[in-house]
Amino acid sequence: MAASIALLLFGGFFAMLFVSTGDLQLGRPGFGHILLDGWQELILVFFCVATVWAVVFVRHVQYCTIGGAVSQWYFKRAQLGSFPVAVALGTTLRYHTGSVALGSLLITALKFVRIVFLFLRRRTRFLGKRCAPKCGSRFARALCCYVECCLACFEKCLRALCRYAYTQLMISGHPFCKSAAEAFTLLTANLAGAATLRVIAAAYLALGKLLVAAACGTVGALILLSESPFKEELYSIWPPVVAIVVIALAVSMIFFGVYNMTIDTIFVCVCIEKDRKQLGLPTDGSAEVAVLLRDPDVIEGQPRRAGSLEQMVCAESTSGTRTARTTLPLSSPDTPRDADLQI
């Protein structure tokens, strides 16, 4: 959150600095406007898009980091290190930067499409005041409102899908598009559970935010009413109490956002575990689960265990009438050991 605010301030400062390079055209006394040529306007739009993209990218890196840390805790709790969040952040930046950039780019592009339709709606409203109703301005405004509403709903769905896709990405290691498809399959297979979880989680998170803000405001009001020099010098306690409530609400939104992403990650992990139970595969946080997570083809092939896991892992792939069996000894240097497995 702090990084996002810093990027917004940085982008706003340099945008105003760039606008100041335009030509100042004076109007009536005390008024004027800055004129930018075509290239300057294009560069300004590109800079605004890049700034919003950077802000969304930082937020999605946070989602991916939380998803990786929580999924590692869920499936590999015995091998969890001292700094799981730092490890998940390093994995995200090292292996999944492109996937996070793609997801954030989709959200950014959708935001600017909504801005374009908002501009068109305001433009048609302005033209409707100057033109006759037969010009079709009312129909154009209604169409823009309809498209903008559909885009807003689609953006919310895409944002939710990205959150689930990042969790699936950190578990399987697949690219963004394949992880999004897998997450969408999980959601459609567990749609009732996802909807119920979202409603209950949203209610509890909203209640928690309100309780934190109310508690901070109450404590602040009691301090202002009972402690010196506030009780003698303050004319009214309402301005500082309102400021305390607003700040507490903002901080609680940051912390409860982490809980929200944690809930989504655990839900995805539970769905994956349920699918493994249906396939007869192990579901605990053992080394075999880690191997299955690293090799999705093994999951699809439903391998049969031959001997102990410390000796070999067998993977079967059937093509037509021929069956190929590959035996991977875990003691060989080409096979990832349990300590080297990443989720």
UniProtKB/TrEMBL annotation:
Its main location: membrane. The chain crosses the membrane at residues 38-58, 78-95, 101-120, 201-225, 237-259. InterPro entries: Choline_transptr-like. Keywords: Glycoprotein, Membrane, Transmembrane, Transmembrane helix. One of its GO terms (molecular function) is transmembrane transporter activity. It is found in: Cell membrane; Membrane. Residues 316-343 are annotated as: Disordered. One of its GO terms (cellular component) is plasma membrane. Residues 316-334 have a biased composition (Polar residues). Pfam families: Choline_transpo. It is a multi-pass membrane protein. Belongs to the CTL (choline transporter-like) family. Choline transporter. This is Choline transporter-like protein. It comes from Calcidiscus leptoporus.
